[in-house]
Amino acid sequence: MSDEEIIQRFRKGESWAIHQYFYEYLWIGYCAFDQRYQLSKKDNLDFMSLAHQYAIYLIEHDWKPLEKRSPEVSLRTWLIGGFRFIILDALKWYKKEYGSITFEDYLRTFDISDNLRFRFNRMVEDVCENLLTDQRDRIVIELILIKGYKGIEVAEQMCVSPASVSQRYKRVMDTVIAPYFRKYFDMDLDDREMLSKWDSGIRRSSLKEGETSTPMSQKRTTPEFITELQPGEIFVFGSNLIGIHGGGAARVAFQKFGAIWGEGVGLHGQSYGIPTMQGGVETIRPYVDEFLEYAKAHPNLTFLVTRIGCGIAGFTDGEISPLFEKAHQIENVVLPEGW
């Protein structure tokens, strides 16, 4: 069968096709990641839990994400590529207590034939063209990240020592490349201190002449990672209508803050679910409005809103943040930075 015929079989819910072409394809990706991250030895990172999570997402979107692939990318490659994000998202939350996935780990997950690799190369080229002023920095980054040369090979071509190439590569990675991809490519990098300095530099450079930054007067923003809550604080996360809290913030809400499996809407324990995976942005708005009314009615609670809808659901900050415009007048609602 062609890839298009397989997708139609998926839509019809034909179990044999889903088993043969969906789960067996994903099993290939899982085995590769299991060797690297020992997924099968970690709680809630077994194959069926992760595969079901991906299946729920695709079913709720009528399998349409599979049709967005480039013509040169096979369905199998595209499925495994999407499954990679499910796995890395789950790993991000699993690993947050003892260190995140490194930038190099992400690079090793790319399939050179995958459209994602093409996007990655284009973004590296943009960084080299617009952010790197030193020509030697550009050469080192392009040869190593895009062309795949080893440091010693680059050193031979540039007639310098391997140590010189290594030092230059590390400096550019730490100060430019890693922060850039953390900000624009949604990667969980391991240099959080550098990221903080990078973001601060962007904010300072965006001030007009004569303006001063007044962080003490700014409204509180939601931390990127929340591992514990104070009494009266509520963790607001993006969920799905059937309450399958399998990954991302939903997994944290279920494991730590009282979210109930099978309940995807409203307050449970110290968590509040807002469904984001049932359709377009306008299908999310009623649930956000309902949440804001609830928050206004409970001023004794503080609601920490995470970047709902901007992970597995696939929306952008620019699409979701306008839904929370009224939240700026509600003192006990805390929004992510930039919302």
Which short descriptors sum up this protein?
about 350 residues, alpha/beta, 6-stranded mixed beta sheet, globular
Question: How would you explain this protein's 3D organization?
Answer:
- There is one protein chain.
- The chain is of the alpha/beta class and 339 residues long.
- The protein contains 13 helices and six strands.
- The chain has helices at residues 3-11, 15-37, 47-60, 75-95, 103-109, 115-130, 135-146, 151-158, 162-184, 192-205, 248-256, 281-297, 317-320; strands at 221-222, 233-239, 266-268, 271-275, 302-305, 333-336.
- A six-stranded mixed beta sheet has the order 1-6-5-2-4-3, with helices on both faces.
- The radius of gyration is 22 Å and the shape is globular.
Strand elements, count:
6
List unreliable stretches of 5+ residues: 97-101, 109-114, 186-218
Helix content: 40-55%
Overall, the morphology is globular
CA gyration radius, whole angstroms? 22 Å
Q: What's the story with the biggest beta sheet? A: 6 strands, mixed
Give the overall average pLDDT.
79
Structural class by secondary-structure content: alpha/beta
Strand content: 5-15%
What is the strand arrangement across the widest sheet? Answer: 1-6-5-2-4-3
Measured distance between first and last alpha carbons = 45 Å
**How many DSSP helices?**
13
Write down the secondary-structure element order.
HHHHHHHHHHEEHEEHEHE
